[in-house]
Design brief:
The protein is of the alpha/beta class. The protein has a single domain, classed as Divalent-metal-dependent TIM barrel enzymes (TIM Barrel, Alpha-Beta Barrel). The chain has nine helices and eight strands. It starts with a strand and ends with a helix. 42% of the residues are buried.
Amino acid sequence: MLRCLSTHLFLKERLHPGLLELASRSGAEAVEIFAARQHFDYTSREHVQELAGWFASNALQPWSMHAPLFPDREMGRAGAPAVNLIHPEKSRRIDAMDEIKRALETAEYIHFKNLVLHLGERTDTWSPRAQEHALTALEHLDAFAQPLGVRLLAENLVSEPTSPEHLMEIFHLGHLTRIGVCLDVGHAHMTCGIPEAISVLGERICSVHTHDNHGLRDEHLWPGEGTIDWDQTMPALKALAKPPALVLEIHYTLAETPASITEKAQAAFERLA
């Protein structure tokens, strides 16, 4: 399984080559870039070219990018609406599509292979209308991503529209054979359970957001610090026909030092190998 570190861990900082080098020293073979403007400003030509130049001369791969969740630099705290592809208001859906396309365009320079998408927010409910909006968004963004060499990965959240069963229903209804899944084991642990999620999503799973929690809150702890049964989870993932990438997605509020990041990431990759 490809060892990958999400830059979500550094979300409060501007993403720069030093942080990518820290990821490499931590045992990662690849990174998932979290597209939040205060962290990675995908609208800044200078920032995009700075990172593209670093990747071009280093072994660390840009495996994936996490699509933006908010269009501002405050993660919505200043009142900006969330990026929501299935919002009931058409204007909100159009704005969300445009914001994600801005991030996707950076694949011309930073050659990431996958874009992880949230279909809505945690409070969204399942309905024929939500299904229709999800289909429209995935079809449109897939057509935009394909010439860039990027595959879309829909993530299971803790909302009704993104349950494993509903994601598979969306894929089958729209004949969306190119689109995969980023299985978030923390979200699955809080909802249907990880074994059930793996069973339903199966070979669609291309990437795994790997972190821990206690089953109640989305804590994004290091593996082993919560109640996920890793001895059960890892064999089930490795039994898939094509083992997915293992993406450590740890919360930035844990305030880890560079030394502790290196130590804990190396330990996590070894534990889950």
